[in-house]
Amino acid sequence: MAPAPPRRPQGGEFYRIALPSTANAPRIARDFVTSLLTVSRHRDLADDARLCVAEVVSNAHRHTRTPRIQLCATVNRKQVTVSVADNAPWFLPVLTTPPAGDQLECGRGLLLGDRLALAWGWTLLGGCTPDRKAVWFTLARVGADEPR
């Protein structure tokens, strides 16, 4: 069963950027989200957002053949929700516990995101025959009225 789509923050501002699926996409996405959080007075969320967005965009670039990665962000005074869409609905992120030690070179990013985000998940897009998916996460200010 697919997780519920992200709840859009009430009264938030909506931003969108389309990125070519290149090795530079994670850096551009990090810089974009950092800029949004800086001007919206969410500097306290910027480091966590940079890590989470880099992981999600990197996964879209590395594990799909999507030519374009779509990043959407909704920001309000308490939280930010970032959604990253690609054209690979069959490649869904799965949170797994990595083996002990330093043997695993990938798969840790979702665990990190799970610990940092208030909530995260994925949503299939395109109706009855999905042609895209979006992986999303929500970060909130410490002390926000949202449950952790």
Any key phrases for this structure?
globular; alpha+beta; 5-stranded antiparallel beta sheet; 148 residues
Give a structural overview:
The chain is an alpha+beta fold and 148 residues long. 30% of the residues lie in helices and 27% in strands. It has three helices and five strands. It has helices at 25-39, 43-63, 108-116, and strands at 13-20, 68-75, 79-86, 119-125, 132-140. Strand 2 and strand 3 (79-86) form a beta hairpin. 31% of the residues are buried. The mean pLDDT is 83.
Question: What is the multimeric organization of the chains shown?
Answer: single chain
N-C termini distance: 22 Å
List the helices and strands in order. EHHEEHEE
Tally of DSSP β-strands: 5
Strand content: 25-35%
Please, how many helices?
3
- Outline: globular
Trace the largest sheet across and list its strands: 1-2-3-5-4
Q: Which class best fits the helix and strand makeup?
A: alpha+beta
Instruction: Average the pLDDT over all residues and give the rounded result.
Output: 83
Topology:
Layout: E1 13-20, H1 25-39, H2 43-63, E2 68-75, E3 79-86, H3 108-116, E4 119-125, E5 132-140
Antiparallel strand pairs: 1-2, 2-3, 3-5, 4-5
What is the structure about, briefly put?
The chain has 148 residues and is of the alpha+beta class.
